[in-house]
Amino acid sequence: MEMSPEEMQKKKEMVLSMCVCAKCPSWVECGEKGGYCFPTIGKSSCITEEKGCICGGCPVTEKLGLTHGYYCTRGSEKEQLGM
Questions:
Q1: Considering only CA atoms, which of 49, 65, 55 is closest in space to residue 34?
Q2: Predicted structure pTM score
Q3: How far apart are CA 39 and CA 34, in angstroms?
């Protein structure tokens, strides 16, 4: 079931409020807010090196039932599942 644009925006705001991307060893400060696991945010345009991943410990991962990691370089859960 597709979400409305309003529902997507609300979920995106929730993801960004819970996001721990900035604490990750792979994080590069460049003005991005993180939330790379969310499909409408997608991969980072700054992070190119995988230096460690904390996605598994992120509250967003638990809340949304995500199973992958390195969303910053590999794309959202949907992208990594080939959707």
A1: 55
A2: 0.90
A3: 12
